[in-house]
Specification:
The structure holds 2 protein chains of 2 kinds. Helix content of chain A is 11%, strand content 20%. Chain A is α+β, with helices and mostly antiparallel strands. Chain A has one domain: 2-Layer Sandwich (Alpha-Beta Plaits). Chain A starts with 27 loop residues before the first strand and ends with a strand. The mean pLDDT of chain A is 93. Chain B is of the alpha/beta class. Helices cover 39% and strands 19% of the residues of chain B. Chain B has 12 helices and 15 strands. The longest helix of chain B is centred in the middle third of the chain and has 30 residues. The chains are: A alpha+beta, B alpha/beta.
């Protein structure tokens, strides 16, 4: 999305940070195996980008904002999350 | 027009009087030698009910500049003062003030940087901030200190500029020296400087906005380009405002002011209070029949390359006298002037002289010496050292 620059970088639109899709920074992408997931939501608690949503079956990623840091995979107690190379 | 009041005051008082006439709303300041009198006087004006402003006492210069930025973002007219280590501690915030395009004025008592610790006159403190995006003016005397403060507010707040401005007055030589100063009447300054209303938005809880927001690689460079266009655009604004000030208050200001340059072969370039001594040297040399002139640089940022080149057209040798040094390179004025001439076919010989650091006196004989060295370089083609140090105390060298 192209936004025109303003004098002094003043942004009058509230909540516009949501428009900046930081998922584009990702090189490694998390994949969750919902068969293994025990819905403990440690990944949800640890995700620094709020890119994990709780769903009935376990979790779901919002890949628009996941930067692929891998903290979720590291914290998962049942190794239900693996990091795989991003395909672009 | 009201009558101008003649006062005998110190340089710090002159910049404080100039600031007061501009009716600042907020004055965040942290006192530091040799600028301490400025916040003291501003506090007095506020305490005595002469000025309706908020004086913010802060715990450091970094906080002073941070408070200036916050206040300026609300649309307030803001001023502060500092020097030396104080300007250095503000360094980070200086770029934020200019990047957020917030006009404000800082009076700087130009002083050397540690180590060794030294409280005397030197231009290194503001020259080290030349790349911060602030406009920089340097005063020759206390009158200029007062006048430049008023001009600085008007120029910085112009819709075509919207940038902060530093006004340098030399440590002690000006800050603590009493001189006669004509102080304009309040109603005339009010007329010259209308209230400030930021055209690009202001910090207001009723209309939330993000200031200095995230600038990703897709945008940052364009922000900087726009900022550079604004400082480039300030060139015409400075001329207009200086002209209007002269018309209204009777005192002439230029980015670069020539003295005896019309038929000069050799020209000295100075900044700040040393200009007065240099002028005496030029008078003396002229009496001896030497074709020498002088340029006083008042505006260092934006660097007035076109004006300097016009004045210097036909001149054979230029002595650029810097009261600062970029270690491993040259003095700042020299670097900028040399760069301005790089692609010119016709150009004078430029010589760089470093002197007056840390309050070292600069005498008439020193300017004569710099004239002679430049003349010799022109006559013999032997250019000498890239950087020449003047008035060196040989006894204390190792």
């Amino acid at each position: 999305m192209t936004v025109k620059i303003t004098i002094g970088a003043i942004n009058k639109k509230a909540g516009s940070s949501k428009e900046y899709k930081t998922g584009g920074w990702r090189t490694m992408c998390p994949k969750v195996d919902l068969e293994k997931c025990i819905s403990c939501y440690k990944c949800y608690d640890y995700c620094p980008d709020g890119a994990i949503k709780k769903i009935e079956e376990g979790i779901e990623y919002d890949l628009d904002y996941c930067k692929g840091c891998g903290i979720c995979a590291n914290e998962c107690p049942v190794k239900a999350i693996v990091m795989v190379k991003e395909e672009k | 027009m009201g009558e101008q009041k003649s006062m005998t005051i110190k340089g710090n008082m002159a910049t404080a009087m100039g600031a007061k006439l501009c009716r600042p709303n907020v004055i965040p300041a942290y006192p530091i030698t040799p600028s301490t009198l400025f916040p003291e006087k501003m506090s007095e004006f506020v305490a005595d009910g002469e000025l309706d402003a908020s004086m913010i006492n802060v715990e450091s210069e970094h906080s002073a500049m941070s408070a200036c930025i916050g206040a300026a973002a609300t649309g307030a007219r803001v001023c502060t003062a500092s020097a030396s280590q104080g300007v250095a501690l503000m360094h980070e915030m200086l770029f934020i003030a200019s990047g957020m395009r917030l006009p404000m004025v800082m009076a700087v008592g130009n002083r050397a940087l540690s180590a060794p610790i030294n409280i005397w006159c030197d231009h290194q403190d503001t020259v080290a901030s030349k790349d911060s995006g602030w406009l920089q003016f340097y005063a020759e005397n206390n009158q200029e200190g007062l006048d430049l403060m008023i001009n600085a507010f008007r120029i910085g707040e112009d819709k075509r500029v919207l940038l902060p401005v530093m006004v340098g007055i030399d440590a002690f030589v000006l800050t603590h020296t009493i001189e006669g100063v004509d102080v304009p009447a309040q109603e005339d300054v009010d007329d010259f400087l209308p209230p400030y209303e930021p055209p690009h938005g202001k910090l207001d809880p009723k209309e939330p906005a993000t200031f200095g927001s995230f600038g990703t690689p897709e945008y940052y460079q364009e922000f900087k380009q726009a900022q550079v266009e604004a400082i480039e655009g300030s060139r015409d604004v400075i001329d207009e405002v200086f002209d209007e000030y002269e018309e209204k208050f009777g005192r002439e200001y230029n980015k670069a002011t020539p003295y005896y340059c019309d038929d000069a072969e050799i020209v000295l370039i100075t900044m700040g209070s040393m200009t007065g001594t240099a002028r005496e040297a030029v008078k003396k040399l002229r009496k001896e029949g030497k074709k020498v002139g002088l340029i006083k640089l008042t505006v260092f940022r934006p660097f007035p390359s076109p004006e300097l080149k016009e004045i210097l057209s036909g001149v054979k040798g230029v002595a650029v006298i810097d009261r600062n040094i970029s270690p491993g390179a040259y003095g700042a004025m020299y670097s900028d002037l040399a760069a301005a001439y790089t692609n010119e076919k016709e150009k004078p010989i430029l010589k760089n002289f470093i002197t007056g650091l840390g309050g070292r006196e600069i005498f008439v004989k020193n300017f004569e010496e710099m004239y002679e060295m430049t003349k010799k370089a022109v006559d013999t083609g032997n250019l000498g050292k890239p950087v020449e140090w003047i008035n060196v105390n040989e006894d204390v060298l190792r």
